[in-house]
Amino acid sequence: MRMLLRRATRPHVVAAALVLPLAVLAWIGATRAELVAPILLPELGDVLDRLWSLFAEGTIRPHLVRTASSVLLGFAIGAVAGIVVAAALTSADRVSQRTYSTMLASLEAVPIVVIAPILNTLFGFGMSSKVAAASVSAFFPVFVTAFAGLSLVSADELKLMRSLRASRLQVMVKLRLPAALPAIFGGLRIAIAFSLVATVIAEFVGTDRGLGYLMLRFRGAYDTASMWAIILVFAGLGAIAFVVLQVAERRVVHWRR
Amino acid sequence: MSAIDSVPVTVPVATTSADDLVTAFLTAGRRHRRFRAVAGRVAIAVALVLGTWYALPPLGVVERVFLPAPHDVLGRLIELVQTASLWENARATASVALWGYAVAIAIGLTSGVLLGTVPFLGRALAPYLGALQALPKVVFAPLLITWLGFGNESKVATAAIVAMLPIVIDTMVGLQSCSDDAVKLLRSYRTSRWRTFWLLRVPASLPLVFVGLRQALLLSLAGTLLAEALIGSSEGLGHLVELYNGQILMDRAYAVVVVVACIALVVSVLLAWLERRIIYWRGHELT
Amino acid sequence: MKSPAAGTPDRQGADDALVVEDVSHVFDATPAPFVALDHVDLAIRRGEFVSLVGRSGCGKSSLLNIMAGLLAPTRGRVHLDGTVVDGPSRSVGMMFQAPVLFPWRTVLSNVLLPAEMLGLRKAAYVARARELLSTVGLSQFERSYPWQLSGGMQQRVSLARVLLLDPEILMLDEPFGALDEFTREALNAELLTIWQSSGKTVVFVTHSITEAVYLSDRVVVMSPNPGRIDRVIDIDLPRPRDRDVMASSRYGEVVVDIRGALGLR
To answer: Between B3 and which of A43, A99, B123, B283 could a Cys-Cys bridge form, CB atoms 3.0 to 4.6 Å apart?
Structure first.
């Protein structure tokens, strides 16, 4: 207990804990003193009111569900595809590996912003175009990290598997995949963030439902307080996703290489 | 240095491709057999993609209207590249993206240096930086447009906000990344903190700082394109895609996407090449 | 609980380069503070070659850092040439297990680093730097970069660097630990040559008993939990320590003696 107290009262921990209250105070102070244009930074009270009513009145529910499910579904599809393609590529010869991985990785440079409108046209304004955008965005980080992770096995480890007469599939499942897990989780963390961004962008570009839709509606009404409320919701979503992945990683990858 | 671990430095996902491409370009000529093997595989991949592309509409998966034939897209592309309007829009996008990048660098580098050299600040703010990484910065775009209007200011602001965070984090982590022994070595000569900063921390941080700078440029481009797409009456390649897409002129829309993709690729390779020149000791960092 | 006095302060004379006086050091750590050093006394004569050996955690590196003025002990003092150590000194040169060469600088530029750090005119030291590189056999690598050299060569550069300002005392923290056997032997021989021709005082931390016996006049055996000096053993083997000496029975006895002190069979 004393040790915990000692750690908790270290200067930077105290400072970190103070940042949030200080930020809140700064917000209130800036708006009261009219230091910032109200159109950019409304009163914190108003924002929290809107946030509360959005949830209390259930207005936000269908949109939150739509966005969250788009993100999750897109993330799942993209991540699985990333791992599968990476695994498939690992069994190819070296030249193929380098060629195809380079080609795939270079596709990543294309900003999802320009792909999104086209996905809307191809898949309609509904959920599928957002899921498509999210999957595309999630695919690349997972593919790159999975490919790198799966290639981590040393020659000695491969020799061991060979001496035990392991089949290709066994080598993949029992050796490469577990070894690649830390790297893959790193990729997953990035992928979920990318999926969220892609979904938001896709919704901004055009959608019938979702948090992005709400954001645009509020923008049309110049309702910045509600816009900030949505931003806070997004922050919450991001934080939840991050924490969930951290916990999942800790439970799955319970050894340190 | 321990709290820095809590801020996950985003993996430079775009770098592997650019690095490999640069290497491929530089070594392709010398190894003919290798080159043919690579070219062969590239050809297979391209053929597969094109084949699927051609095959989808007849198979009824999607209307031909929405997925024009590749040769049509190519034709439009060649047409467009010769028009002035495409290049004007490209210049508009580039100029906004570069301005946004400059702002992101100015604020990002300063903050990163501050957080990296004052350990107390770095450790105190690390968890919040991590939280900011999880928040998609693009959500600020509508807000910025509401505040700054429909002109270039909001586009530059969006680009800057989207691009800034990687610079801050990578600079901060980079400045802390030099080995303990190196710091001890300099301390044993009673080197001032100022000199230690310039002679050790800064060069040692360059690899990571460049990762941040590279990511930021692509992000700035993305932010610009988004702002252009969001603002109805504007210019730029993002706006063009929206425009053609809205009018279901898909061949033109795809053509512009190809243009954007090429720009993004060229920029990546260029930055990778620049990095290789500046950080000539790449791959042999002081750990 | 004072350790058996290894070189007690009352022996302090004008020919002592370093005197460690009742030094203790405690690291603030979780779950409990870690006692790295507990009432350590040691006196090192000018021109002596002393090795510190012991298991991991026995505090030998901490002791070295304290003697070099890089770490302030929680208790006790260190005297360097009669004055109390309160920070790094120009008369002390340090070398680490990792070469710690700046990869963005050439070999020559790395060797010149000490002069640069102290604000001295580089031009005045270039000749000496070149001379030192020649001594360690790396003249033609002057304009190479560290990563173009092997591990052993990098450590040689590191050795040249530490000698640039001709410090009276050398503190070496397992400098050859990361190298293969053969390179290590070669570098040990080079180190001895340099030591014998310069009359410097050397404090050498190592894991290897054979290395310690080969190099030193005295071996300080330390043990962990808490870190302290168990015994100081005089190496009365004749110099130069050539193959005959290494093959002698006396050598074997000394090694066994140290192994016993370390608790090994």
So the answer is: B123
The ipTM estimated for the assembled molecules is 0.87
Of C88, C98, C117, Cβ closest to residue B181: C98
By DSSP bridging, strand C34-45 and strand C83-84 are unpaired
More confident residue, B250 or B17: B250
Residue of C100, C148, C163, C174 for testing the chain B interface, max B β-carbons within 10 Å = C100
Distance from CA of A85 to the nearest CA of B (A): 14
Residue C24 structure tokens: 């203790």
Reported as a pLDDT band with limits 50, 70 and 90, residue A97 is: confident
Dihedral sign for Cα C54, C57, C58, C64, please. positive
Say if the Cβ atoms of C31 and A7 lie within 8 Å.
no
As a whole number of angstroms, the distance between CA B225 and CA B235 comes to: 10
Q: Is the pLDDT of residue C8 over 70?
A: no
B198 touches chain C (CB under 8 A): no
Q: Tell me if chain A has a CB within 8 Å of the CB of B136.
A: yes
Q: Say if the Cβ atoms of C96 and B185 lie within 8 Å.
A: yes
CATH 1.10.3720.10 residue spans of chain A: 51-256
pLDDT at residue C200 is higher than 90: yes
Model confidence at A234: pLDDT above 90: yes
- Which residues, numbered 163 to 182 in chain B, qualify as contacts with chain C under a Cβ-Cβ cut-off of 8 Å? 179, 181-182
DSSP per-residue letters across chain C:
-PPPPSS-GGG--TTEEEEEEEEEEEE--SSS-EEEEEEEEEEEETT-EEEEEE-TTSSHHHHHHHHTTSS--SEEEEEETTEEP-S--TTEEEE-SS----TTS-HHHHHTHHHHHTT--HHHHHHHHHHHHHHTT-GGGTTS-GGGS-HHHHHHHHHHHHTTT--SEEEEESTTTTS-HHHHHHHHHHHHHHHHHHT-EEEEEES-HHHHHHH-SEEEEEETTTTEEEEEEE----SS--HHHHHSHHHHHHHHHHHHHHT--
The shortest CB-CB distance from A224 to any of B41, B143, B245 is to B143
Pick the CATH number of A51-256 from 1.10.3720.10, 2.40.50.140, 3.20.20.370, 2.30.110.20: 1.10.3720.10
Between positions 47 and 76 of A, the ones with CB within 8 A of C are none
Interface of C with B (CB under 8 A): 65, 68-70, 87-88, 90, 92-94, 96-98, 100-104, 113-114, 116-118, 145-147
Instruction: Indicate the residue of A100, A104, A113 with minimum beta-carbon distance to B238.
Output: A113
Can you tell me the mean pLDDT for B252-271? Answer: 91
End-to-end, the C-alpha distance of chain B in Å comes to 14
Average pLDDT over residues C202-229: 90
pLDDT > 90 in chain A, percent: 40
